[in-house]
Amino acid sequence: MKTEKERMLAGELYIADDRQLAKEMRHGRRLTRIFNQTTEVDGDFRAEVLNQLFKQVGPNHYIEPPFHTDYGTNTTIGKNFYANYDAIFVDCAEITIGDNVFMGPRVGLYTAGHPIDALVRRDQLEYAKPITIGNDVWLGGNVVVNPGVTIGNNVVIGSGSIVTKDIPDNVVAVGNPCHVLRPITEEDQIIWQRQKAAYFADQDEA
């Protein structure tokens, strides 16, 4: 017979009120509480706590407190990661985040789901589906990513979007429900590279 944790991570119905899951959740909550009580001068200690909290986290990561998660141990984060205030990772299923991912304030990654049928919900049964975010992704403020969603590489998600379905590579996507607004083009690259060059030219003159 599978444990409730095994059922949870397999995307099957499970009961969250389970001794093993409760123990692991307490561990995650304790570490996030410690993290959220740090100050701006505790950079090294913050990084140490996050390394204990997450399944894996790459170098050069920064999360602005407060931050909240269920377990932490079901979340993998790549290098050069930044999350602004009030990020929430409900990682009942695996959350996988690539390299060079930026998140605005109040971004929520929600792997957990509850049955549509009320009679099943009353029995405290729930499920979880993994969330995957590719490389070079920017999620604007107040973006919500729903269970089972994959966001591709080089994607910008507009603020306030509710992402209910997969988003392909190389696009700007917005809305509720989130949809592709347009592709990211070579013209975008030219415009922003030109502005970058102008910035560094100003720095050289200063």
From TrEMBL:
Keyword hit for Acyltransferase = yes
Which residues are in the Maltose/galactoside acetyltransferase domain? 5-59
Write down the top EC class of this protein: transferase
Which PROSITE patterns does this chain map to? HEXAPEP_TRANSFERASES
An example of a Pfam family matching this protein is: Mac
EC code = 2.3.1.-
What's an example of a GO molecular-function annotation for this chain? acyltransferase activity
Does the keyword Repeat feature in the UniProt annotation? yes
This protein's UniProt keywords: Acyltransferase, Repeat, Transferase
| Family, per entry | Belongs to the transferase hexapeptide repeat family.
Q: What is this protein called?
A: Acetyltransferase
Taxon lineage: Bacteria, Bacillati, Bacillota, Bacilli, Lactobacillales
